[in-house]
Amino acid sequence: MPNLLTHLRFGMVSYPFYLIIYISFLRFFKTNISLSVLDISLSYLFYIVGSDLPDLDSNNAPLRGFTKALSLGFSIYIFTNFIMEKLSNLPQLKIPEILLLPISVAISMLIGAGLINLFLSMPIFSHRGFAHSVTFAGIYGLLIYLFSTGKSDNAIFLGISAFAGVMSHMIADYRKNPTKIFKLW
């Protein structure tokens, strides 16, 4: 079974080949796209994270703890404004304005920590279970696409890069049994 270093190395080596395939596909269909250095850098970041992301289902995977910490950033992004609005509309709490943002961020992080721990403890996250599936790769790619839409002109490129990164993990894991690379669940 490949470890973190193996998956990261495979991701680093395979990323240029992914770019060749992606650009060739676009040229074949006569689609013109302009990728900035930022687009390519973000694409690489999402690809390389995806190259080890399926090992979230392993309790001893180094990326598991790191992903939990990163997911709190998404929780802050999703919940903080809502919580700040609700707390500021409760005059009986009398929260000083200087504390409103830090309290809202802390509550958002607590919600995020609870959700991610609940999510990762679900039975579908047994090792080489759901996280090692095309469906998981698709969800990761879709989330990256959705978070990138409106922030990048090439959100579809970033989402496909994320998907391809997870697929590179499965290629490394299932090289001896390639039919498992495309399992749906």
Describe the protein's topology:
Layout: H1 4-28, H2 37-50, H3 62-88, H4 97-120, H5 134-148, H6 155-173
Helix pairs in contact: 1-2, 1-6, 2-6, 3-4, 5-6
Could you characterize the architecture of this molecule?
The protein is mainly α. It has 2 domains: 117 residues, no CATH class; 65 residues, no CATH class. The protein has 6 helices and no strands. Helix 1 crosses helix 6 and helix 2 packs parallel to helix 6. The longest helix is centred in the middle third of the chain and has 27 residues. GO terms for molecular function: hydrolase activity. This is Membrane-bound metal-dependent hydrolase. It holds the Pfam family YdjM. Keywords: Hydrolase, Membrane, Transmembrane, Transmembrane helix.
Using brief descriptors, characterize the structure shown.
about 180 residues, mainly alpha, 2 domains, 6 helices
Summary of the model, kept short:
The chain has helices spanning 4-28, 37-50, 62-88, 97-120, 134-148, 155-173. By secondary structure, it is mainly alpha-helical. It is globular and about 60 Å long.
Task: Give the overall pLDDT as a whole number.
Answer: 88
How many domains?
2
Structural class: mainly alpha
Q: Beta-sheet strand percentage?
A: under 5%
Question: Helicity range of the residues?
Answer: 55-70%
Rg from alpha-carbon coordinates: 19 Å
Report low-confidence residues grouped into runs of 5 or more: none
Helix and strand string, N-terminal first?
HHHHHH
Q: What shape does the CA trace take?
A: globular
